UniProtKB/TrEMBL annotation:
InterPro entries: DNA_Partitioning_ATPase, MipZ, P-loop_NTPase. Pfam families: MipZ. It comes from Bacteroides stercoris. This is ParA family protein. Gene3D superfamilies: P-loop containing nucleotide triphosphate hydrolases. The lineage of its organism: Bacteria, Pseudomonadati, Bacteroidota, Bacteroidia, Bacteroidales.
Amino acid sequence: MSNEIFVAFATQKGGIGKSTVTALAASYLHNMQGHNVAVIDCDAPQHSIHELRERETKLIDESLYFKALACDHFRKIKKNAYPVIASDALNALDDAERMLAEEEVKPDIVFFDMPGTLKSNGVVKTLSQMDYIFAPMSADRFVVESTLQFAVMFRDNLMTTGQAKTKGLYLFWTMVDGREKNGLYDLYEDVIAEMGLSVLSTRLPDSKKFRRDLSEERKSVFRSTIFPMDASLMKGSGIREFSEEIAGIIKPQ
């Protein structure tokens, strides 16, 4: 019996850090929590997560230091890096099924990084087959309104009518400026609660460390599809709490 859980990070607004959050949550759950994860990168044509994997693989191939580091890491966690499949919203489900049939180690969680607009061909159809959807938003009125519009449309037209298999749709705050008052978020959340929507308790900060990729110049890494996040960089990032909150909701086997 197939027990994998399909999870999408989806939004109607680009530039909200959706792909970064997907990569970080996948990395934490795969490398630190022991779950088997796969990522279907549907965010064509940029394919940010797949491009990151390609760059990292090239760096490892060309560096004895990174090669040894990767071997040591895989030995420690007793498994390989999670698969990253470049796809698009129209073919994502077929590519996911093909990957599941071919992978020797079956993933517990398949993350889908969706395009930043519902207008892309196949987005709504693919989202309707997700077990859980998580939608990022920032404390910008236009972003909040757009995200709420998406969430209400999807819930009312697809979830409540049984056209979607989705068990839960959750919003979450990202790019949180530490100088902003919590009262602003509390006000937004009061309105969101009145609409019958759920918001994760973890708020992700606006931090440059989220963009700290693997490179020859630096030895510590945060955003990676292969290596775990550097422990010192993880402090204050919210990624541990965010990923564990998601795992508590989706309950992978």
